[in-house]
Amino acid sequence: MPKMGDEITDIWAFLAASPLLWLTMTLVVFQGSLWINRRLGGSPVLHPVLISMGILITILLLTDTDYDTYFDGAQFIHFLLGPATVALAVPLYENRQQIRALLWPLLVSGLAGAATAALSAVMIAYLMGAEWVTLMSLAPKSVTSPIAMGVSEKLGGLPSLTAALVLLTGAIGCILAPGLIRLLRIRDDRVKGFAMGLSAHGFGTAQAFGISATAGAFAGLGLTLAGIMTAFLLPLAVNWLPTLMGG
Amino acid sequence: MSGLITAIIILLTCQLAGEVIVLWLDLPFPGPVLGMLILFGALLIRGGVPEHLRQTSHTLLGHLALLFVPAGVGLMVHFGLVAQDWLPILLGLVVSTTLALGVTMLLLSRLIWLRSRRAEDG
Predict the structure, then answer these.
(1) Is there a single domain that holds both residue B30 and residue B63?
(2) Which residues in chain B have Cβ-Cβ distances shorter than 8 Å to A129?
(3) Each residue of A1-14: pLDDT tens digit?
(4) pLDDT tens across A69-98, in order?
(5) Do B104 and A57 touch (CB under 8 A)?
(6) Interface test mutation site (partner B, options A29, A47, A66, A90, max chain B beta carbons within 10 A)
(7) Is residue B75 part of a domain?
(8) Which domain holds residue B114?
(9) Rounded to whole angstroms, how far apart are CA atoms A15 and A8?
(10) DSSP symbols for A205-244
(11) Which among A90, A191, A227 is the nearest to B109, CB-wise?
(12) Is there a domain that residue B74 lies in?
């Protein structure tokens, strides 16, 4: 006759190996993190995704579960990143008139901003002696995660490291943006929003909607434009990056 | 309900087409990004967003944050790399984000100003 302790171990062994447990756990932890973030005043420093990552990693380490086992369950959520990227076409289409009106200014400043974001990050980390795989994971960090992770994988970076760096960039952008807007005396909401979406993706877009609806729409545009340009140009740029760095 | 399924079929078909073309032509960018451009082109040709697609897309994008979590947890696999490179990473992130925000804001406001002045002159 099995003892109580054995039964619990058996049930745990069954659950820990099934996708159901970690799928459910991810949803529960994320919902809890949303609540915690709201209780803390919605601060971008403690973004729900960062809180969720902290809690889930702690649970996995405490229960001695490896990432592959966790991902067997969580992959069902992860899979939706692809369709979500495709869905970005809808806000892009909805803002097409504003885009057409300012097409060249947006393209030129968008390209300059996206290139600055990627190249300066890689250069600084390179000069400070970071590993190549770190550099490749860092390069697409300014764009929205589904695109950034796809690009990182293409470049030979680590998509999961990129995901974390993207989240950090978003939080850093939200902390820095208000001060920079004041310092540079920017009054045009279109400019504020576009720059925030471009350099701090979804985090910046959410914050821009707090300034005004116009800022929010242009942030969505900045996010999409940075994503497209990074996805198409960064893999090409990285091909000649080693020559540029003399390596 | 069938509208939801149609919307899912549209999104997945665009992604599938994007992935297949990227593999086929050995393109250097992610398949879903090409899928987004295919959908954008299709919307331009069609001249409007079907209501079910608009709703499904906004729902999906409204919960974008959740979708990052599984990959973000993968950070636990890279603790070694992060511990080793944390200073270059942090400095790179802070400086590059400051520069990107500054360059974009200054350039865009300058270009908008130039354009409005040209409009007044012309």
Answers:
(1) yes
(2) 88
(3) 556 677 778 888 77
(4) 999 999 999 899 889 889 888 888 887 887
(5) no
(6) A90
(7) no
(8) 83-122
(9) 10
(10) HHHHHHH-HHHHHHHHHHHHHHHHHHHHHHHHHHHHHHHH
(11) A191
(12) no
